[in-house]
Amino acid sequence: MYNGNRYNSLTNKAKTLFLFLLLAVSATQSQATLSDSTYVHQIEQVVVTGSNQATSRNLLPYTVSVVNAQQLETTGKTQLLSALSGVVPSMFVSQRNILGFGVSNGGGGGIKIRGVGGSPTNGILMMVDGQPQFAGLFSHPIADYYTTEYVDHVEILRGPGSVLYGSNAMGGVINVITKNAQHDGIHTTLKSQYGSYNTWQTALSNMVRMGRFSSLVTMGYDRTDGMVENFDFKQINLYAKIGYELSRYFRLSADYSLVNIKGNDPIYAQLRNASYIIHQNITRGETSLAFSNKFQNTDGAVRFYYSYGNQYIDDPKHFHSLDDRFGIIAYQNVNVWQHATGTIGFDFNTYRGKIPMSGGSTSGAGTLEHKSITEYSPYLTLQQSLFNNILILNGGLRMANSDKFDSHWLPQVGFSFHPTEDWCLKASMAKGYRNPSFRELYLYPPHNPDLDPESMINYEVTISHRFSRYLNTDITGYFAQGRNIIQTLNGKNNNTGCFRNKGLELSITSQPIAKLLLRASYSYMYSSLKELTAAPKNQYLIGANWQPLPRFNIDAELKGVGGLYVANEVARQNYTLLNLGFTYNVTSHIDLFAHFDNLTDADYMINNGYKMPGITCMGGFKLKL
């Protein structure tokens, strides 16, 4: 059983809450003046996800949501997936603690988009600047790897993206676009906050632009005692990127990121009437080198990337795994004829992994000698604009090849219709897939080396209407059918599963006055799978950003979840969370802020046995130089 105490100390919690409330009240009483800092609502959002080139979101037939850096910052979260969860319709991320997702048994960070994602997450593709991200052995991203400090914005493709991005993009894509310095100079930011459960989060970032040279470096340290004893977590992360414009047509860039994660988990063992503590020590790194070009009628890029991981888990026996991945991404966009653009691309990647120790033994069913899979896939897309952009047709085709699985074709087609400037009708059909992981192919008794890739076909229709700045709406209906889904029958993995998911998504934004921005979203999903975790039936968000005084901002967010399946022995979860954030601009260089989460004190869980925290609060400062 989990520990029923929500707080390490009621007295310490009361003191901290009082301190942050005092900070907020003091801020409202200040009459200092400064330039307006309200949100700027982008009516024509430009995205690269879903097309490999900068395109107005409304010109794509696919559903792409954009969350910018300011929206991420108002959540008060430093872990990117925590900040995104519930903000985008039909997207949900499993969590288990105030900070830290963890991995292995009991771990959080499971991502579902429209009920698709797998467990662990291998049906949603994480990317950073278009580079695929997942651990080679288990084919899922490490959720703790992604932080908000280097993020300019995030583009979320809801629905298959396999034509452009290959395996693991079966249910959707989350593409993290990193920051770039826009003006010459050196800009340094230090952000630090402290709060409930002895949680401390600090990040230092530096952006430089000098003529043709630009760079971004961020370093962060996060830690918490956790909600119960021995549930502590800490991580150190580094991200660095440099770029150089060789000429007006060519650019060279490189990046490197490194994360070390250490965490303990006493709850998983308690659920099994045991007393051991799971210890985790995860190190992961990524690097890439990219050469891009941009001419009047064509643009593209070639990117070489490499990632590696070294994982130690004591549960309580020793587990050690190693994996790495090397890949090449190449594409070129071309204006093929009048009002038509096409993309020709090729992806290559080879990933390897081994488990030298499992269950405290260097031999046996849990260990694995070096295994590798190589994938190589060409693809084509074409977009034709007709009648002065009133009708836009889009299609694409990928031939997925590997040295392990049979070749197969992946199509996508769609259109975007604009009868007026304020109305848009979009529809599409796309097929996605994911290759089986090493775990499913070779590890533990259910393994089956003869598995085939999973696949999914998705149909969707979107209607958008812009009523000026006062009201903008999007409503989407979708139907998805999965086949060859891997499930365990009679002690062996087989491609015998299938599913049907269908649902509705609604997004609304409004700016009734200059200093107030309102946003709301709702999603409903029906799934033929009755025991689908991290996929609520209903999900809604109502949010507001208000600037009552020139230096003072208030962010409010009401999140609701209904019909969330956790486990057979747990009632489906229905809960509402009220989150508030306050920011006070002391000077042009210093901000003070405070964030309060779950002010409704909702009692709920997402991962079986891991009760989520009640009221929590964090407060700190942001120094800008």
How would you characterize the overall build of this protein?
- With 625 residues, the chain is mostly beta strands.
- Helix content is 7%, strand content 57%.
- It has a 22-stranded antiparallel β-barrel.
- A hairpin with a 2-residue loop joins β11 and β12.
- The termini are far apart.
- The N terminus is likely disordered.
What's the structural blueprint in terms of helices and strands?
Elements: H1 10-29, E1 46-47, E2 55-56, E3 63-68, H2 69-74, H3 80-84, E4 91-93, E5 111-113, E6 124-128, E7 131-133, E8 151-158, H4 162-165, E9 172-178, E10 185-195, E11 199-210, E12 213-224, E13 233-245, E14 250-265, H5 267-270, E15 278-294, E16 298-314, E17 318-337, E18 340-357, E19 368-386, E20 391-402, E21 408-420, E22 423-434, H6 438-442, E23 454-466, E24 472-489, E25 492-513, E26 516-527, E27 538-549, E28 552-564, E29 573-585, E30 590-597, E31 605-607, E32 610-611, E33 616-624
Parallel strand pairs: 6-9
Antiparallel strand pairs: 1-2, 3-8, 4-5, 6-7, 8-9, 10-11, 10-33, 11-12, 12-13, 13-14, 14-15, 15-16, 16-17, 17-18, 18-19, 19-20, 20-21, 21-22, 22-23, 23-24, 24-25, 25-26, 26-27, 27-28, 28-29, 29-30, 30-33, 31-32
